[in-house]
Amino acid sequence: MTDTPAAKRQRPLSPHLQVYRLPLPALTSIAHRITGVGLTVGTLLLVWWLAAAAAGPEAYATASGFIASPIGLVLMFGWTAALWYHLLNGLRHLIWDGARMLTLGQSYYSAKLVIGGAILATLVTWVAAFAA
């Protein structure tokens, strides 16, 4: 067997992300961390809005105008989705801490419940907000 440079280039690195597919429980774990960071950033927007309300009408109008803009609404929608996902996945982790639903099948099932619940709760929140 020869170790030519061409032979070395044809061998795939294993496992690499082009071939290896992360399982759903791993993806939900990664998403939980990402939504935690997103909640921190979104909370800064909320603090800015509250501080603007305390600072006076002009500052409040500026903050409210930004939040009501298309970019602000997208950010708030993402923050709402992150909040619901992080909450529901945190409850899932609490259930796991109680040594329940730890089998592989139950882990996939609970991951699907968390994702579906977060989508549903986000949509209900926004529909209720605009219906009021």
Automatic annotation (TrEMBL):
Does this entry carry the keyword Transmembrane helix? yes
Q: Enumerate the subcellular locations listed in this protein's record, separating them with semicolons.
A: Membrane
Q: What is the membrane topology listed in the Swiss-Prot or TrEMBL record?
A: Multi-pass membrane protein
> In the record, what terms sit under GO molecular function?
electron transfer activity; metal ion binding
Q: Does the keyword Transferase apply?
A: no
Q: Which domain of life is it from?
A: Bacteria
Entry binding sites for heme:
86
Cellular component terms, GO, for this chain's entry?
A: membrane
Co-factor remark: The heme is bound between the two transmembrane subunits.
* One Gene Ontology biological process: tricarboxylic acid cycle
What keywords are annotated for this sequence in UniProt?
Heme, Iron, Membrane, Metal-binding, Transmembrane, Transmembrane helix
CDD domains listed in its UniProt record: SQR_TypeC_SdhC
Q: Name the cofactor(s) required for activity, per the record.
A: heme
The annotated subunit structure for this chain is: Part of an enzyme complex containing four subunits: a flavoprotein, an iron-sulfur protein, plus two membrane-anchoring proteins, SdhC and SdhD. The complex can form homotrimers.
**Official protein name in the record:** Succinate dehydrogenase cytochrome b556 subunit
